[in-house]
Amino acid sequence: MSSFKAFFKHYLQYFLYLILILLVIYLFTGSSFALGLIIGTIASAVNTFVWHHYLDRAINSDALYISTGMGIRFLVAAMACLFWVRFPEMINIYGIALGLTLSYVMIVIHTFNSLKK
Fold first, then answer.
1. Dmax over Cα atoms in the chain, in whole Å?
2. Total domains, the chain
3. Do the domain assignments include residue 45?
4. Which residues contact 7 (CB under 8 A, 6 or more apart)?
5. What residue intervals traverse the membrane (predicted)?
6. CB neighbour burial string for 36-58, b if at least 16 within 10 angstroms, e if fewer
7. What confidence score (pLDDT) does residue 1 get?
């Protein structure tokens, strides 16, 4: 199985479902929290992809130095927060923060599910 297919199967499909649900909620309510959660969830999906890419590369590498892509993940989080800086009346920062933490929650859930098998 290719790296992207494995990533899609384990993580991305859940992010896509969540983003679609949040988008419907935002369209019906116009909530700034929902919009912040959408932005944070998209950034979280990108961060999870970066993490998965670097993890896959580290597993398949014989190099002594292993990168985790932390700088890229910080930049993605900063970009998500810049949406709030630009549009503070439309976007809720707590929604962005909660959305950014979803990747870590999904990684922990996936780890526990993998340990059960």
1. 51
2. 1
3. yes
4. 48, 49, 52, 53
5. 12-28, 34-51, 63-85, 91-112
6. bbbbbbbbbbbbbbbbbebbeee
7. 53
**Token pair belonging to 65:** 């130095």
Question: What whole-number distance in Å separates Cα of residue 12 and Cα of residue 16?
Answer: 6
Instruction: For residue range 87-98, list pLDDT tens digits in order.
Output: 999 999 999 999
| Residue 117 counted as domain residue | no
The residue range of the domain holding 27 is 3-111
Tokens of 58: 């580290």
Cα–Cα distance between 117 and 34 in angstroms, integer?
Answer: 35
**Rounded Cα distance, 45 and 56, in Å:** 16
Summary mean pLDDT of the chain: 86
- pLDDT tens across 28-69, in order? 999 999 999 999 999 999 988 888 888 788 887 777 677 777
**Is residue 28 assigned to a domain?**
yes
Looking at the domain assignment, is residue 86 inside a domain? yes
Q: What does pTM read for this prediction? A: 0.85
